[in-house]
Amino acid sequence: MSWLQVVVLSILQGLTEFLPVSSSGHLAIASRVFFADDAGASFTAVTQLGTEFAVLVYFARDIVRIVKAWVGGLFNAAARNADYRLGWYVIVGTIPIAVLGLLFKDEIRTGARNLWLIASALVVFSAVIAAAERFGRQTRDVEQLSWRDSVTVGLAQCLALVPGVSRSGATISAGLFLGQNRELAARFGFLLAIPAVFASGLFSLPDAFHPVGDGMSASGPQLLVATLIAFVVGFAAVSWFLKFLAHHSMYWFVGYRVVLGTTVLILLGTGVVAAT
After folding, report:
1. d(CA 116, CA 126)
2. What is the 8-class DSSP label of residue 213?
3. Is 23 left (phi over 0), alpha (psi -120 to 50) or beta?
4. 107 Cβ neighbours under 8 A, 6+ residues apart
5. What is the per-residue pLDDT across 146-188, written as a single tens digit (0 to 9) for each?
6. If the chain, 276 residues long, is cut into consecutive pieces of 10 residues, what is the mean pLDDT of each piece?
7. Which residues on neighbouring strands pair with residue 180, listed in sequence order?
8. For labelling, which of 26, 43, 152, 265 has a CA lying 20 to 30 Å from the CA of 77?
9. In angstroms, rounded to a whole number, what is the distance separating the alpha carbons of residues 134 and 149?
10. Are 29 and 115 in contact (CB under 8 A)?
11. CA-to-CA distance for 45 and 55, rounded, in angstroms?
């Protein structure tokens, strides 16, 4: 992997990780279209560590408050407030993707990175995001979160194992279908992603140097720089996205997904780009 590839792909990772457009799908498309090779699932997972560090910094006060409430609630039933319950919701909601991620890790690194699948997922899942915006009541706040939210959004997060779906698109859509307001759906989805993405990134770190499946290998300095770039760009992106969601819908991203997915399908159909 060249340094140009590292810089371009890590910037792209930071820009798209939190938007409902699929960062893994964008990295797979960009690396094939512009660099004639796949960056690989392992490189993608490692650079996601940078964007998750950005989430940790951005939500630092919330995370500290939730952890304190969760630990305190374990030993004092009277202290079991909404933050205590939220801590459990994040833990339980992480279980589905942890299990499925381990079971299908080989397919995620190989077959799931086929551009036909990625482009189709970009287009098809756009309808889900649009439906969530159309039919979600958006009346529930954090005090009304329940175990149903934890399990449902946790299962929705598993869809992000397929590049092109989008982790934030899946979790926010699930939250909207459950009646959560848009900002809560985004925040809960981002908190839910932290343990899953960190575990995936650390697990994939050795393979990023020597990919097991398809994908370019990267050096230690390249992975470090990529993670730092993804952190800086990701922090700006998550800050902007949450402010955007406070006043705008996700319909803007639906149109973008359809255009991008359709364009890739045309390039594949005409033989301009190879699917694998």
Report:
1. 16
2. S
3. alpha
4. none
5. 999 999 999 999 998 899 999 999 999 999 999 999 999 999 9
6. 90 93 91 79 78 91 94 92 94 92 76 88 96 93 92 94 93 96 92 84 65 64 91 95 91 96 95 85
7. 140
8. 152
9. 19
10. yes
11. 15
Residue for token digits 């097991």?
A: 212
**CB of 160 closer than 8 Å to CB of 166:** yes
For CA atoms 106, 264, 50, 145, give the dihedral sign.
negative
Q: Are 216 and 38 in contact (CB under 8 A)?
A: yes
Q: Which pTM does this prediction carry?
A: 0.89
Cα separation values, 165 from 71, 120, 159, 161, Å: 34, 9, 6, 8
Asked if 79 and 62 count as a contact pair (C-beta separation under 8 A), the reply is no
The residue type at 151:
V
Distances (CA, A) of 155 to 32, 124, 170: 30, 18, 9
Answer for the pair 155, 101: CB distance below 8 angstroms, yes or no.
Answer: no
Over the Cα atoms of the chain, what is R_g?
18
DSSP 162: S
Amino acid, res. 157: Q
Amino acid at 2: S
CA 13 – CA 18 distance, rounded (Å): 9
How big is the CA angle at 122 (ends 189 and 203), to the nearest 5 degrees?
55
